[in-house]
Structures are given as structure tokens and as C-alpha cells.
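Interim report to the steering committee. The following record documents the input for histidine kinase (642 residues).
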Amino acid sequence: MKGIIALLWYAAAGLSPTAPLQTADSVHLAGIASQAYGLVLSQPDSSIALAHAVLSHVQPKKNLYLEAYSYYVLSKANWTKANYRLSTEYGYKALRLLDQDPHAYTNLRGLVMLALARTFIDRDDYVQAEEFLNKVQRLAVKHHDQQLLADTYREKSTLLAETKHYDSALAYADKGIAYYRTINDSLRVSILYGRKARAYLDMGDYAKSDLYNRKSMALDSLVGNTRALGFSYFYAADIAYRRKQYDRSIHYLGRSIALNDRIHNLTLQVRAHTLLAEVYTQMGQGIPAAQQLKRVSILKDSLYNAEKSRQIQEMQSLYALETKDRTIETLAQKNMVQKHRVEIQRMLMIVLGVGVVLLVVVILLLVRLRISQQRVNQALAERNLAIEQQKEEVESQAEFLQQLNQLKSKLFSVISHDLRGPVANLQSLLHLLTANIMTPQEFIAVSDKLKTNLNSTQRTLENLLSWSLSQMDGIRTEKKTLAVQQAVDEACALLAEFAERKHVTLEKQIGEGLDILADANQLQLILRNLLHNAIKFSKSGGTVVVSAVGQGTMCAVRVRDYGIGLTADEKARLLNSHEYFTKSGTQQEKGTGLGFLLCQEFISRNNGTLHLSSTPGEGTEVSISLPLAPCRPGMPEPESVL
């Protein structure tokens, strides 16, 4: 039961009981030491008495952890009483003990250095305080101790407030509060609320100072932090004094004085009576003000006498410690004699030890061989996996090449048929003309149809060349700023004759000021193919609408026809970049199927996207999105709607 109580006290103190507590006596002493820590802020004198009682028992037994922990408690308790000299001495004693094993008890080492840093802040030694805080922060980060890091933030907020770096002080206080709330540590949250209240008070923001001081006061009362509650009452009085609320200031000063008298914090009592004298002075009550100043003088004398008394007691304690050290040295000499006897026994044990070592070596060799075999097996498994992955990649590439080869075969089959016919017709007509079998008038009569065939043949050749270059990565995409209106006008002009011949109207709806970033030649090829397909599948007398609008950072160009449309299967085949597809137009116009493949390829090269929607009998709309170019100085913003 005592062990459980001790562990609970360690948890309350924010420490981990890493010292070896193997005996019932050690567990009992650990519980007393933790009880002493729990009384540090509310009953510092009782805390000091308990810590000295633990020290008297653990020093002869050389329990390093409990001895260092007891000195840490004495340092904290004397700090509560504003006895900074003793607080510093006990803190350094704890550090000297912990330095005997630098790699152990890191949490306690950090807490001791934090206590010293807080004491040095109150002694106005900010350089020494900052040095300790930096050491603790490095220690907390190295060991991933989040609570110790939060405690460091808590004391850094105090240091920064004292050095008038208020914004940084508030930031560190908020960091600490955020962590303490996650572990429901109301004691430390209340302390940081008090730090924020002090910072806002010095900054002249009395409203925020009063808000956080009230929060601190409520939590201090809840957790029983007598020292902090005394400071909270003092700051509440100071806020009221600065707001000229003198009666309220007197009320809180009375509470602060009563608490500080109970824990014998003479330093804060001096400050409280001094402020009370100033309040009475402002109220025009000279006699009470003089009485308070007299009380301040008495307290300062008491503080001086107490310091002298503590110095005498400390010298007596140091002498007692030196006497104990001499006794320990005598015992050490006696132990040396016993050690010689033990050496003989050790020699006997060496023989047995050598045998054990040899056995361990054999076991280690066997284990090492086993590990080596496992590594070889793992390496073979990884190589097999890599070979399987390479095989899958080769099969995937072979399948892709097969699909591409099939596409090329189909394309060249169609191209050979479509190109041979117009070229043969042209050859026959030229032969008839040169042989005087056909008159020039008859040649002119059929020239329009011949021109149409040649235009189709030229477009087929251009698409074939572009597609071939794209497959061989021979095409370079050089993007530049292009006006959408101008690009659409050029494409429509090239296809105007084809549209007139089918009695199809080309309608343009282009937003003003639309500039895109694309390759000029590739954009023209895209627009020509989309317009040609729209005219090709439009009925006689139909309309093809070309529109463009800005959509955020993209420009959407749409080509809409009201022709024969596409079925769902035809649409799926058309969008499949690895499947050849062609369809005759409304007047049996033929195509190679290359045009739409090239459009998909070039839109992708220009960082664009393509969307196709079609309904059989109602028409087709192809929408492409290309990046808008940055606006040039003096140019209007592109229209987002038509």
C-alpha cells in the first residue's frame, strides 16, 4: 500500500520514480518526499521539515535519487518563501548529486534547473536564468519530454515578461497552456494565467490583465496554490489601484497579506504593505499610510534578521555534512580490507566466467550465421520480386507496342486507300488533258471536285505527318501568348469554302480580351480538325457555333454542331487513344481517324483538357480548356461569360 501511495505522489509531482525503490523503507521515504513536494506552495515550512527528515535517512544509505529529490523540494520550498539564497544553494546541491550519473534521472535534472532558473529570475540575474532555460529546453527536446518542454515555456514566459518582451512572453505562455490543458493540469494553467495577467498589467492593458488574473485566482483557490493565490490577490489590488478603485485594492491587499503571512513570504508582504501605503496616500489618508510604511520598515528588518539566522543555520548544516563525510571516508577504508578478500573469490569466478564467455561466443556465432542466411534469403526474395516487376513492365510495354502497331497498320491501310484514289484521279485527268482527249473547258468543269479531293488529301498528309512526328517525339511545343479571336478567325477562314459548299453557317461567339498560352501551329491544327469534323457531320443548311469564355485560370473553347451526333459506342471508341475510328460525313465525306487523335495529343502537350458530349440526331459539342495567358499591362480582364 505504501508503494502505491508513493507512486501516486510521484505522478502528482510531475516526476517518474526512476530511482530503485527496492525496500519498504525506501518506498516509505519516497512517499514522504513526494508529500513534501505537495506542500511546497501551500505550506512551505512543513515541506522543508519533511524534506530534511528524508535527507537524514537517505544520506547514510547513499540513495542518490531521493537525496537529490529532497534538495529539489528544499529549493522549491525556500523559493516559495522568497529565500532565494537557500533556494539557489539547495538547487546546486541537487545538481551536483545528479552529475554523478549524467545519463540518469533526466526529468528530475530538468526540474532542478527550472527551479534554479526561476530563482535567478526573481534575483534579477536574467543571463544565468536564460542559460538554465536553454539547457532544459535542449534536454526536453532530446528526450521527447513534452511536459518538461511545457514547463520550460512557462518559465520562459516569466523571463521574457521581466525583460519587457511581452509579446514573446504571452506566446510562450499560450504554448504552455495549450499542453497543460491536454493533461488537465489546472495548477500549471493557473500559474500561466497569472504570468499573462502580469504581462498585460505591465503593458497597460488592465482589462485583459484583470480577466486573466481572475482566471488565475479561481484556479489557484481550486488547487490550493497558496503562494500563487497571494500573488493573484496582489496583482488584483495593483490593477484596482491603477484604475483608481481604491476600496477594491485595499480588499485584495488584505487577502494577499494574510496568505503571505501564513507562508512567511516576507518579500511579497513588503510589496503589499508598500502598495497599501500608496493607496492610502492617494485616498488622502496620511495616518494609515504612515502606519503601513512603518510596517514595511519592520518587515524589512525581519527579512534581514531572518537572512542572518538562515546563514548561521546553513553553516551549521554544512559542518554536520562535513562530519558525515569524514565518517563515510573511515567506512570506505574498512571496506578496502574487505575488498581484498573478495578479490580471491573473484579469481575463482574468472575460470567459470571464461567458460561462460566461450559458450556465449559460440551462441553468437550460430546466431550470426542464422542472420546471414536470413539476409541472403531476403535478398533473393527481393531480386525475384524485382524480376517479376520488370517482367510485368515488359509485358505492359509489349501490349502497348502491339496496340500501337495495330493502329498504325489500320491507319496506313486507310491512308494508302484514301491517298491513292485522289492521286490516281489527278494523274488520269492530267493524262487526258495532255493527250488532248479532254479540252481545257472540260478540265475546268471538274477542277472544283478535284480541288476538294486535293484539299482533303493535303489535310490527310498534314495530319499524318503531325501524328508521325508526335509518335517519334519530333514535335516541339513552343508556347506563347495567342489571341483566341485571331486563332478562331484564321481557322474559320480556311474552312469557309468547305462550309459554303455544304451550306453550313459558321457562327463565332468569342469573349473579348481572351489570350491563351499555347503553341500556335498546334492550336491551329486542333481548331481546323474540330471545325472540319463539325462541318463534316452537319446537315445542309445547318449551323456550327464556335464559342470561347474565361473560366478562372483556363479558357474554354467549344465547337458545337447540330448534325448526326455520335452513339455511346462511337463516342467511347473515339476517346480511346489506342483505337482507330472513322466515320463518313453527311455527304459521305471520308476521314482517316487521325484528326481527333492529334487533337487529344496536342491538347495534352499544351496542358489542356478535352470533353466530348454528343446525342444521336441532335449534334455534338467538343469543349477544350487551355491555360489563360497572364494579363498584359493596359489590357482588360477576360470576360468570364458571353
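DSSP finds 21 helices and seven strands in the chain. The committee is asked to note this result when reviewing the revised timeline.
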